[in-house]
Fold:
Amino acid sequence: MREERWYSILGSFLWQYRMTGVVFGLYTGIFAGIFSLYNIEAEAVLYAAGLCLLLTAVLLVPVFFKYWKKHKERRRILQNVEILLDQLPEPENLTEADYQEMLRKLKAVFDRNLTSWQNERRESMDYYTTWVHQIKTPISVMRMTLQGEDTRENRELLAELFRIEQYVGMALNWLRLGSDSTDFVFQEYGLDAIVRKAIRKYAPLFIGKRVRLYYDPTDVTVLTDEKWLLFIIEQLLSNAVKYTWEGSVSISVKPNKILCIADTGIGIAPEDVPRIFEKGFTGYNGREDRKSTGLGLYLCRMTADRLSHKISVESEPGVGTAVSLDLHTERLEVED
Structure:
């Protein structure tokens, strides 16, 4: 919260009592007018007015410091208003008492709405979690049935079934990321094992599209959550193979633990690059591909933020796209 200057608070204080000053000036003017009608020296009025102003200024000094103190107290409470609402200072007049009562009423309404929303979200989470686990059974049955015969039609259906599995997993991860109880488990993991899991999962798509994959094994270890980092890498590989019709996709680890996934695909329009991580944004390529949801990269950014990883994109239309995931973390050392 921005620190306020003393003269700013003084200005607010004087502005609050501006009507008192206006009334005082009117009274002084009335006295001066009447004295002039009776041919009495105006100096008497000005002298009295000056003394009154001096006395008022002296009396207002402690009033101003009290005003300042109460303002600071309210600003402190504002920083933690949800938990310190009951610590509001005692009202000095009926107006302050009314405002505090309004705040308490609004807090009660907010608490009821928040509780209702949390209950609804919990029910939705339970429902969709159950649905995801149930839908996996018919998907597995269809997969085994289609794998029973190696035909062109079955391979195409298997590819579409794989897309269904992706969307099902994306729906569940969407709910989990929006939940307050996301199951992050942070520890040191070997990056090579995580990348290989993603490669094995998407190997059929690379083979089906005849896109070459280059990967340089690495012995780098990273502090992360294995499941959620795998989710990010899978989404990035999915996009890479999706928009690469010919050529290759390469995975490499640059110095300082930067994982780079680059493709020779269609690339991204320059005006779309700054917005590709926005929710629901599909850009020019997404409009060409009607199946694009605009959620994959948004979830990647959301997940990366939760993991304290940084994600960035460089792209050139017709040349390809390179996505960099900064997995570097600063180590904290506790001094004795």
Notes: The longest helix spans residues 94-147. Residues 251 and 261 are 5 Å apart (CA to CA). The chain has a mean pLDDT of 82. The two ends are 33 Å apart (CA to CA).
